[in-house]
Write a structure and sequence with these properties.
This protein folds into two domains: 339 residues, no CATH class; 60 residues, no CATH class. Helices cover 21% and strands 38% of the residues. It has a ten-stranded mixed sheet with strand order 2-1-5-7-9-11-13-15-17-19, with helices on one face.
Amino acid sequence: MMDTAKPQVMDRPKKSVKLAASQQQGEAYLAAVEAVLGSARNDYDAALAALPVPHRRVERWKYTPVASWWTDVSSTGVCTAAEAGCEPCPVPGMDAYRLVFVNGCFDAAASDLPVHPGVTCMPVSQVSHEQPVDNDQPEHAEWFAAINGKFGREGLFLRVAKGVVLDRPILVHHHSSGSGVANVLRHDIAMEANSEVTVVQWSSAAADANGSLNALTRVSLGENARFALDKIQDEEGQIRHVAFEDIRQARGSRADVHTVTVRGQWVRNDLTFRINGEGAHAELNGTFLPLDGEFVDNHTTVDHRVAHCTSSENYKGILYGKSTGVFNGKVFVRPDAQQTNAYQQNANILASDQASMNAKPELEIYADDVKCSHGCTIGQFDEEALFYARSRGIGMEAAKAMLVHAFIGEVLQGLAVPEVRMEVEHRLAEKHRWETFNDDPGA
């Protein structure tokens, strides 16, 4: 009898070819960055050689396309806010200390560093000693973070002494301008016991900008320290933005990180919280409203290592046109982390039939006396709420704007600096109004 079973198709060689091509593209990009930025730290060469170049077959990059990264890296571009034609402070009315970085270069003339007892604040390039290599850092776990370790020679260096409460926020403004730029920034923050600091990271880009921004923020919190980070991404042009936050918390400390992506062609936020002391709390919130062709990816890891700690995260997205969003949140509870209370929520609205959202909330628990929960929703605008508003004489544009504000308002209310919240609300309202008008001119 003839065997009619279909022959097995072996696709391993094809996969191997694709993986080899990804590796070659990554190596070519790495060489191009080194050619532009010059010599760098060799400590991370082993990590770069051992780590896989991100591609779709790496689980953490399954929904994250990286093909756009392998474009030309050709110049460092202009190095001052005046040359780039950007405002040093993008937030009207905000009273803050300021560090401005244009295309990865520190602009001293546009900056206003704090002069405060117990506070050491300067550009990383002015620190007299090199920071030690720690194998537990993200630079040894992610390929793009290893690039930051190798080339990140500029950024914020901040040390806050015991009991010091900084009187104003510190604004760190990243601006990209020009074509083929590769910005690599490393922010190093260490706070001693009972200190308090608020930092605002604002990333902007010119309309004709093309290139990448690779930013890594490392934060070490002492006992009962309080740290707040408002991270705003409002980049025009074609900037690929990858950001890492590595936050380590001692007993009784609190860290609040709010991430708002107003605009961004390609954005990936990768946050890791390591809760090392009892009584510590981590707060992670974010919102994003991508338009047609924009991509926003939020990856979070909250690592509960000791008992009696809490964490909460809430991410909300509204996706327009043919945009794509990703949320991958993981809460990890170790065996000794009894009495952990962890909450995770991700909610999304698809405002277009062409928009897509990939969500993967995760709990990995190895302790038996914990209270942990997670949830995820993906839907559309509430038609009943829209009908209710329109039946009372409210236009479609205004009705949708009300729903948008109600949906993301909880996240925006958590921003630490009121002036930042007001400016973000204004910019998101303008963006939504533009998209609604283009989607339905008769609304």
